[in-house]
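Blackboard transcription, Thursday session:
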Amino acid sequence: MIGEQAYWNPVLETLSQEKMRDLQLRKFKRLFQWAYDKSKFHRSLYKNAGIKPDDIRYFEDIKHVPKVEKAMMRNIQRKDPFPYGDALCVPLDEVVVYRQTSGTTGQPVYQADTWQDWEWWSECWAFILWAQGYRSSDRIFIPFGYNVFVAFWAGHYAGEKIGAEVVPGGVLDTQARILKIQELKATAMMATPTYVLGMAATARDKMNIDPSKMSINKITCAGEPGASIPGTKKRMEEAWGAKVYDHAGATEIGAWSFECEAQPGGLHVNEGFFLVEIEDIDTGDIIEDPGKKGKMIITALDRQAQPCIRFDSKDVIEWDPEPCPCGRTFRLIKGGVTGRADDITKVKGVLISPSAIEEVVRGVEGLSDEYEVIVDKIGDIDRITLKVELELGRENQRVAIENQLKDQLRLKTNLGYVLEFCDYGTLPRYDVKAKRFKDLRKAH
Amino acid sequence: MEQKVDIQELDEKIKLIKKSAEELKMMADAFPALYRNSDRILANIKMLELNISDLLDAGV
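(Written on the board underneath:)
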């Protein structure tokens, strides 16, 4: 029976690392030649660096190929053909899908895809869904505002591809979505961690429905790192009585990683379709060994219209030394995407990642799911204010909760905080990507 | 734990359907439904190539 097979591609997902490197090198060469021939931007970038397709003969040669940064993609867009610019490798009339980045880190980047690219997107997502136990018996509810962001569009098409039934929960408010899940007995859904928790709170607080008693048995998260943060994952799993899996991807890259059913505490890189390199942030050297964090440089090995070749994603990751019990040979990144190179900031001389604070807040029982971190300066001294909410009915435990929060923050982040306890429901709620970390020092 | 699958045999069949789809597309100049559907089939065939045929290059 097909549904009993553990792997979407039983050959590729169990390939030896040696053969995988061979495959990646061959694919990289093919992609490099394609971009060199078809994209004015890439040809110019590589000519200026003195590198041409014949120069890539060994795997080690790849690291000499210039990186592409998001700012470069933004500049390209000012050139013809409108609106994508001269990195486009196909005639405009072969572009069938427009998407754009969310603009979290600046001006959105436009992304062109051919129909082949769009098949590729859903193929990448098929690996994800199959590894997370989605099968043709699933009814997947997607509570996502279908729009210019790629987000769960590809998850939708992959759901169809693997034979599941997909319910597009687009233009519905949160309560209507919950009722629809209940009405149709949906077995799975896909959303950002923020929205997964927000939906559960709405069900409990406004509809008197216990989401853990509903029919959802698995949830795939994307858009934020929450599903790889143990405290946040635990909250989501308890709220919904479901397994929660993480996936990391990006508009300009593709769906490059996934957590499998074994939940090994990290994400598999789909190494058959993507080449991930980890670069030391200080030295620029490529980190081959597990246990050292760096930023991800990624290549989507098969993307056609707007290639992604050695893209400097700024995502901070590290290789996991342990293999996954699921048997896949796709390497794991430990703990998922643990931050962004442009997000990890120094406060009081200490490196701090917003996800470390989230891990603490979501690990303290009695605090609501929402929080906000504000960094500013008092004179020359950095100050971090952490705003949290007590869950309803926890007011008499405030001192104990506050002490636990202080202890954990000191232990896990080595920093002191100004703590503000806000009334339940007063901190901002988000439907998609949350903005809970505000560094106001740059405004000073 | 590599799986035993005859990639060579699968690849030969993929080549056959690709050839047919390409021929259909070439015959579709005045037939939009044939052109576009052949084009979509070719995109699907590319996914078979990524999953199967490319593995031959890696010595599987």
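Lecturer's comment: The first helix of chain B runs from residue 7 to 26.
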